[in-house]
Amino acid sequence: MGQVTVLINDRAYTVACGDGEEDHLKDLAAHINRHVSELSRDVGQVGETRLLLMASLMVADELAEAQQKVHILEADIEQLTQTRIAALERSREAEDLLADVLDNAARRIEDIARRVDAA
Prior knowledge:
single chain; mainly alpha; 78% helix; 119 residues; 2 strands
């Protein structure tokens, strides 16, 4: 099991993680630290707990927005999938109709050829 020391608001925290997850955990901590630093600049040092709470809420808001976008994209994908299925069905119907037209034309040509041969 891996262990990573991360800095949040100039304070070191040691966190356990799965082997190979160290870089990902560092990236996550850096993301949180950016929010904490931004908040610290905007509202001052209002206490570590409050800064972490506010940063957590900001990250939760980002997550909620991302999830909303994912749901919208999933709905778009579903609509496009249904449109594609309908287009494929129309294409098959058109192919069938064209095949019928060509068969009918071929029968007429053969019929004309038989009449010409008979004449």
